[in-house]
Amino acid sequence: MPLADYHFSVKHLKRSEGQSAVASAAYQACEKLHSDYYNEISDYSHKGGLIISEILLPPHVPKEYADREYLWNEVEKAENRKDAQLAYKFDFALMNEFTIEENIELARRFILENFVSRGMICDWAFHFPEQSGDNANPHIHLMCPIRPMNENGNWGAKQKNVFLFDEDGNPILNSKGKQKYKSVKTTDWSDPETLIAWRKAWEEINNQKFKEKGLNISVSADSFAVRGLDLIPTIHEGPDVRAMEKKGIITEKGEFNRQVRKINSLITILRNCLRELYEWIQTLKGSPLKSRNIGAMLSDYYSDRNAGAYSNKAKINNLKDFSDSIAFVSENNILTVEDLETLLSEKQAAFDKSSAERQRIGKAISELNKMRGRISAFHAVKAIGETYEKKVFGREKFKAEHETEIKKYYGTKKHIPEKYLNDPEWEKHLDTELKALQNHLEKLNTSLEPVDAELQKLKKLKHCIDIVTGNVDETDSETQEKEAPERESVLDRLAKAKQAVKDSEKALPPGKEAER
User: Fold this and answer.
1) pLDDT at 66
2) Is the pTM of this model over 0.70?
3) Facing residues of 232 across strands?
4) DSSP state of 336
5) CA nearest 144: which of 60, 85, 194?
6) How confident is residue 108, by pLDDT bands cut at 50, 70 and 90?
7) What angle do CA 309, 310, 314 make, to 5 degrees?
8) Is the four-CA dihedral 266, 271, 272, 277 of positive or negative sign?
C-alpha cells in the first residue's frame, strides 16, 4: 500500500533563545498581539495562508483564557526565570487527499482526544499557504503551555519534590542530616512515551479516514529504520525554505530532498522488483519447470509470437527481441531456474551493499545538518563563554549576569568537533563536507541504474516464461487486459488471437496492412 508523507514534530519555546510566546501565537494565528513581558507588538495580521485558528480549553480552565492575547501574556507572567521554557510547539502535516473540512474535523478531534483530555490548553491553527499543485503544504501549528493549570484555575508547578526513603521505609539523609529528595515532573507531557503515543494516534486517525474514503493509501509514524526500510529520510524544510522554493529559488534543503526522493523512488522500485522476482523463482523451483531450459522456453515464446504475427515489421521486432533475450541469458550463463536464482542473488547482494553505504551517508548528512545548528548557536555565545573562562575577578557576578549564554556555550561546545570551534569559515567548510557526501550519494544512485536495467530484463524474461507456461500473473499490467475472465491455455489464446487477426484483415480496405 502506498504511503503518504507523514510529519509530526514538537519543540520547546524557550525564553533563553529570545523567543516570545505572544509573538509565536501572533504568527500562528495571523493576528496582532501585544506582549506585556517585552512591551512590544507582533503584527502578522497581513500574513496569508490561515484557514482557521482556535483555542480549546479543558473544563477546569477559566473562560478568559480563550482570549489569545490574555492567555499567552499570562503564560509569560507565570514564568520568572530568564531561561524559562514557555510552551510546546507542535507541527504536523495534514493530508492533501482530504478536503479542508475533513482536515479541520480530524485535527480538532485529535487535539481534543489527545491533548485537551490531558488537561492541556491548546491554541491551534490550520495553515494552507499553497492551495494547489505538488507543493501543497497543509499543516497544523499547535501551542500548549508547559506549565499545567490546577483544578482551581491557578497555574500549577512543573515539578515537585519527592522525599527519598530506604527499603525499610526510613528517610535517607544527606551530610547535613536533612532528608534527601528528588524533583519529578508533575505531568507526563514531555515523556518520550507520550510523544510516541501522540505520533501513533495521528497515524491511526488519518489511516481510519483513508479507509472510510476507500483510498488505498496510508501513513506511518514509524521511521524508515523501524519499518525495516533502507530509505533515506528527508530533512524538514520549514516555511522559509518552502516560500523560497515556491518563488523558484533553489535551496540546499530543497535540493537535498529532491535528490533523496529520486534515490528513494529507485530504491523502492528495485526492492519491489527483487521481491517479485524472488517469489516467482521460488514458485518455478517447486514446479515441473525447474528442469526446463530457459533458452528453449524463450524460443517457444517467440515462435508462438511470430506465428501470430501478420506483418514483416512485427516479425522483425520479434526477432530483435528474441536476439536481445538470448544474448542476455548467454552473457549471464542462464540455462536453468537455478541459474536465474544465482543471478538474482548477485543483484540482491549488490543492492544490499549499496543500501548499507546509503544508510551511512544519509546518517552522516543528517548529522552535519544538525551540526550546523549547534555550531551557529555556539558561535552566537562564544565571546561570552570565552570571556567567562578567562575571568579571574568578578567571575561569579559575570556568570549570574550571563547564565543562559554560558550554559549554551558549554552545552553546544561538547557536541562540536574541534576543527569547527575556532574556524571563522566553519560554514564554508561544513558546506564542502556536505557537498562531498551528497556527490557520493548521487554516485551510489548512478551505480544502481545498471542493476535496475538488468532487473527489468529479468522481468521481461519472467513475462515470456509466464506466457509460454500459461502462468501469467493476474496483476501484470501488460497482460491483465488480454486475459479472459477464466484462465485459458496459451494455445487457446493464440488460436483466438489468430482468428481475430483473420477477421480484422477481411475488414481492411485493399492495400492496407494491419501492424501487430
Assistant:
1) 94
2) no
3) none
4) S
5) 85
6) very high
7) 55
8) positive
